[in-house]
Amino acid sequence: MGNTSNDVGSNVTAVTVAELAGLNTLGISLARIDFAPGGINPPHTHPRATEVLTVIEGSLLVGFVTSNPDNRLFTKMLEKGDVFVFPQGLIHFQKNVGYGHALAIAGLSSQNPGVITIANAVFGSNPDIAEDILAKTFQVDIKVVRQIQSKF
Known about the structure:
Largest sheet: 5 strands, antiparallel
Number of domains: 2
Strand order of the largest sheet: 1-2-9-4-7
CATH architecture of the largest domain: Sandwich
Shape: globular
Number of strands: 10
Structural class: alpha+beta
Distance between the termini: 25 Å
Mean pLDDT: 96
Strand content: 35-45%
């Protein structure tokens, strides 16, 4: 089991071509996702892969957001044995809504799917995205941007 003692309460153990050279040219990879009670796999995207998620243990709320201009949210409650597909490149997430630990296995349609965690990319970039750009984008005071950036 992965260590879920962190700020988001989840742990992703990836098996891509970087971890297993035998995946080279096969166009597949896997990830094990462990969740503490209430843990989340924060909103993220895979720029090079569609993801098929299977719940092994527990109950997960999952969802993805369609692209502009609609930005429509699709969610579903999943139980042990349920499967859900996250289309390539769309922002998606999972949350453990059960009382115990949850476990899911994700199959991805690329040996190197990539992952962009939205909050980390926006508020934890190196160097930082200018505070005035983020303040205007999110329509908040610069102090709020600074506070969020300090967490990343």
